[in-house]
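Below is one protein, fold included:
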Amino acid sequence: MSEQDQAFTASDIEHALEDRQFELWFQPQYDLQSRTIAACEGMARWRHPVLGLLPPGLFLGAVRHHGLMPEFTRCVVALGGKAQARWNSEGHYWRLNLNIAASDLSEPSFALLAEAELDAVGMVPDKVTFEVPENDFHKGGKVALRGAENLRRANFGLAVEARGAAVMPDGLIAGGPFTEFKLSGPTLLRMGAVQLRTGGGLVGARLRAAQSGGLPAVAVGAENEMVLKALGEMGFEQAQGHALAPAAPLRDILARAPKPDAAPKRKAAPVSEESLQYENLIREARRTRMDQADNEAGEAEIEAA
């Protein structure tokens, strides 16, 4: 752990969970052809009462060290589900992407727990994709693979995020449980943009492995226009990064997102002449019955007197 991680005790993390100090910021994931948002990746932040807003690199080590990753991940899933319900209510039907660790995949009941957290806010697994780093998944071995298969049986999506040289065999990426391939890192993407002219390189090899399995490829870390323009030609279908939009609180994402088209108002069906005549007859019969009831009531009062 880093010195910063060592400053946080198990009690600090537990209190933060109980006091709802963790929150999610979101970075949109764009479709490169339409330049519309396809998904939003949730990124954890700790709004520490003394230290202010902390990025995950300053506290996730402590969460893992103190064995609190299961509780933390359930918190993140619950926050993500609430955010997704919010953007759905405003007419945006984006996927929700959330990061998990190999330790989450090794928990046999993780898929059920995640599904329960989403169900509590009216959300469903088939619009949620969990992301796991390639290194973590590889280290998890057969246990991680079983956890991944459990998530797929529950209809969750699963993305593998590569951050450098290949660790897993291409066959596992192409024929494994994954539904999405993410290649992360501004340096890798810049290399790919340059090597595009030669048709080779590390990026090209990883993309070919994903494409052979029919996985959509997402570039993570598109930081400038030069890279952004090359992504589609490189073989990426979606992308996220500062060149498109930085991570931000959900309110800012919603404020910047184009408003969805309003559903067209339905025109009233034309009323036929026969229908009008029928309705008039019904009204006349109703009035006749009411007049008859009033007369009978009046006669009853006279007799009683």
